[in-house]
Write a structure and sequence with these properties.
By secondary structure, this protein is of the alpha+beta class. The chain contains 11 helices and 14 strands.
Length: 309
Amino acid sequence: MNRIKRIKELTERLNRYRDSYYNNSISEVSDYEYDKLYDELERLENETNTTMINSPTRTIGYEVKGLLNKVRHNHPMLSLNKTKSMKDIIHFLDSMPGVFMLKLDGLTISLKYVNGDLVAAETRGDGEIGEDVLHTVKTFINVPLHIDCKEELVVDGEAIIPYDTFEKINSSLEDPKKYENPRNLASGSVRQLDSGISAKRGIKFIAWKAVSGIQDNSFVARLLKLEELGFDIVPFYAALGNLDEKGITEMIDDLKREARLHFYPIDGIVVGVNDIAYGDSMGATQHHPRSQLAYKFYGEEAETNNKRG
């Protein structure tokens, strides 16, 4: 097949999957199948120097189409570049102190606090415009409504439904009303117009980044401060640098055990630079920050009824 024709075909196909995934909480293909097609598209784009304007390699999430109010973010909510190679992780950190975190498989949410009060909650949407979900976030079982912080605090994290809660909900449903995976259930629950529905779903918010409001140049220190303020934070490891594949594998295995312990749905590991100022100086593409990298794996954590679009 002509390579340009294949690029157009893959772009259309992946965008159809994304629309279904982000706007309807329906997964038509597995993560593995999606990423395989995505990688093929990215390779063809690089080989031909041709990219469609709506290519999923250049855009974030998908345009929101629901009935919820749309909001423009106060910071870019980008996606992540990804790899399946340990050598890429070593090259990425280049002996710098880094952070290894679970890549939670839920719905990305940004919270804002003013004078300690929760005043805004937004889905990621297309990275620039998301949906106002403050009404449902207030029903989450672990989100602080007030914190001891006078600074305007912005926190990014993941809305998830743990596997044990997911299985309990699913066991009460008859086919074909059962949900495919926790991610779809979480997404559909957060984006309900009726907060009474989401209140019954046992949704949790797991913080993985303090965007602003904490004056510390260490990514890890900011995470720990979020924990002090009452947030559940993502399981992580602080790496001092000079890692080899054995050390990375041990950290990833430990993080997977943490995910199983907490029944967290995951689809990989996020590796990031600990020095925030240096990470910011690395810049970003339209699609992803250069200061973080997603290491994807397709073990039992990612494959258990886990499909996406």
